[in-house]
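Q: How do we represent a protein-ligand complex in a form that can be generated token by token?
A: Start from the inputs.
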Amino acid sequence: MSWYYGVDGRSQGPVEETTLQTLELSGAIEWNTPVWCAGMAGWKPYGEIFRRPSVQCHECERSVDQEPAIRYRGLSICPRCAPLFFQKVREGLASEEAAQYCGFWIRFSARMLDGLILAALTIPLSILNQVIIFRTYPLTGPGAGMERFENTARLGEFLTIQAAFVLISLVLGFAYEVYFVARFGGTPGKLLLRMRIVRSDFSRLTYGRSAIRFFGKMLSDLTMYIGYIMVGFDPQRRALHDYIADTRVIKRDSRRETRA
Ligand SMILES: [Zn+2]
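Then emit the structure tokens for the protein with zinc ion bound:
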């Protein structure tokens, strides 16, 4: 029996049935390629004549051979559509993944909140500091005016007190950050905005790593905030200190957070 087959609307052949099978293996003939032989009323799909199981491709909606079609989440994809389809899947997964990380502005807002909370603690301290300054170097009364700068008798004591205040503020900032991040997974500012700081595997930070991140943050501050601006360009929204401590800032409701 001599067969004819249609490619791009043009009739090819005649060929023997064994040639058809060879052409099918090479991909030149597919399930829905029209074939015809003498005695047939009209053209019919190759797969229908040769009783091959077919599936509908999710992408191009053609009937295709079940055998080389790829199954993905209950969908059938023909080999021709597969590369483009899986590229779309990858892009979809990538944006799904990116969506769980916190961007620049929400992180900026969280930092402002933390700044306000810390200020509530440090402002009374700095008021106390000012009181000490004015008691040591009064603006009025004896020893006031230019004279107060010449009073060096209590300079050592005064500088010690100043250094103590700087140290207390630093320790307070350190303790605030390290304790809350390791204990609760975020500073109060971040927790209020439903954010969490995690490791790259979504586990919680230890106190040690939380401390490393704190010092990394100081480095981010020293880079004129370039360390923060990086967040806007990094696919996983990492700041410099996230790189240093191998951490990520995620949305608290994100799907993968439950694994932590
Ligand atoms: Zn297809």
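The two ends are 66 Å apart (CA to CA). The first helix runs from residue 17 to 26.
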